[in-house]
């Protein structure tokens, strides 16, 4: 298995493989018709200076997992932090350490980029994911997330 950052000049085939994987995640939250939105988001993320990154776990040409994150500026830390938007592993490849390997790759990348921290959120009842995050040194930050959509 190879874990790497998708380059800005990624092929259309690779972009579509990532979108195909993430469609499974979108379907799980009731967004069955989000393929074009995913492709638009992937294209935006891979533009120069977008501040967004996509890392994938690939084996024998198949994308098994993906992580999508953005850089933000942490006013209280005087530098950049990562907001991990999505971390998803295909259901047939879960419980094989793929999510952990993706996170470790991101942590290593962040340390080398002088990133100040990583933030994310998960469902309150998602015990397995919380255990993974805790095992890597993430800690619970009590907060309530709000959203606004146009």
From TrEMBL:
Top-level taxon of origin: Bacteria
Gene3D superfamilies in the record: 3.40.630.30
UniProt domain N-acetyltransferase: residue ranges: 1-150
InterPro entries: Acyl_CoA_acyltransferase, GNAT_dom, YpeA/RimI_acetyltransf
CDD domains the UniProt entry points to: NAT_SF
Molecular function (Gene Ontology), one example: acyltransferase activity, transferring groups other than amino-acyl groups
Record keywords: Acyltransferase, Transferase
A Pfam family that the UniProt record links to this protein: Acetyltransf_1
Name of this chain's protein: GNAT family N-acetyltransferase
